[in-house]
Amino acid sequence: MAAPSSLLFFTSSLNLPLSNETLRGNGAEEEAEWKSKGETKKEKQLVGEKGHVKPTNFLDSHEKFLLGVATKGVVKLFNAVNKAQNAQKGLNPSRFKDAKGMLNR
Hints:
Largest sheet: 2 strands, antiparallel
Strand order of the largest sheet: 1-2
Order of helices and strands: EEHHHH
Number of strands: 2
Structural class: mainly alpha
Helix content: 55-70%
Number of helices: 4
Strand content: under 5%
Oligomer: single chain
Distance between the termini: 85 Å
């Protein structure tokens, strides 16, 4: 049994060969559908933003500086807490030396 030189696609009910245009669909219809979806998406976004006002000068230089200082402080705090927790992992509170060491921290 030899393979046909061109591939034919058949519909399930009528077994009629389909052309390439039928397989790809109509480009104009798809394009119109994409445009309508895009328009509805833009409308939804505009409705969601209705009444919202973006500040003209959202973060000035001083606020940016303070934000950076706060971030660095929080990082230092978390690192210190993590270091203290890891130091206490191997300690046994039932031993006197370990309990004394835990109280000093």
